[in-house]
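Entry for the shared binder. Reason: the reviewer on the internal report wants the predicted structure included alongside the sequence.
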Amino acid sequence: MTKKTVRDIIELAGKRVFVRCDFNVPLDDKQNITSDKRIAASLPTIKYLLERGARVILASHLGRPKGEVKKEFSLAPVEKRLAELLGKPVKMTADCIGPEVKAAVAAMQDGDVILLENLRFHKEEEKNDPAFAKELASLADIYVSDAFGTVHRAHASTEGIAHDLPAYAGFLIEKELKFLGEALSDPKRPFVAIIGGAKVSGKLEVLKNLLKIVDKLIVGGGMAYTFFKARGVDVGNSLVELELIPDAKEILKTAIDLEKPFLLPLDHVVADKFAEDANIQIVPRTTIPSGWQGMDIGPDTVTKFSNAIKDAKTIVWNGPMGVFELDKFAKGTLGIAQAVADATANGAISVIGGGDSATAVKKAGLADKMSFISTGGGASLEFLEGKVLPGIAVLQDK
């Protein structure tokens, strides 16, 4: 996964550089940005290019307009905040292709920034239409990919455009490849993976791939109950994917064959309904009452898992240990977050998958205690599966 980055571009002065960013920011009902972290995360790459005299053309999607122009998905709020963060004007175009866009790009001076309107206002973007990709490529001399959350999709701005321009990684992509790549290809050991979340189906291939690499595999969250069911344990009304029980049995057998510890919860926080005001109790792993459902790992499990994490030198965590969105069922996830933070303080490399895992460590107030938090939920999952990501594959190799 050694790809050329913006540092490998010999001459930037006067060059038109098309940067695929991830400006898919959350907005309230008045079109105000509620978190500008994704915009801030793009600044190192943008500033690097501007400081070297490049003419920077920024592109992103926002929301799911499904190929239609919809005002609520305009990147106008991003343009305003980006200009504030950069401390310089950002010109925004009314479209991402067409004569007006070409004219705006032609008028650029060294050090100028243009933000194109939402790429997904065109259905051709997600279809990776070759003609649309060529239109985007015609605007620039160089392509820079810096939106890791989109590289698992072969879209025009993430994959197609790179067939017509020399393609490099930005600093965000570089960090993702470094931390995720090294964790899988050359981890410091012991290597512990923590996989949670609701369903096995979304992480089946992740589990299979990680079992070949890790020293210990910890499984929690709703997905654990499919494994308990595969062992013949009654799990009450807990979430179970019956159709995946054969796969769960196969994974459990593989762990035994490989002599890899496969750690499941010792106890559970169970509830009589899926709600914040539910009645709850803590029960051992084999005694979930009929009609009750597992909502979180119990305190004995937090201790067991924390002890397994304590001496790790590489930790990959993807997926919460329970329904952490509800405070009553967040203790398990927060406890594991603290264990990972403690191990990191003792020298471990901790890589947190995007999505719910990233939200969980932020809720715990421990985001700054982790080595790296991935910016791409789906992309990081597919990376952990060992898949080739199309938006990475097209970048130039070193």
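Summary line for the report: The two ends are 9 Å apart (CA to CA).
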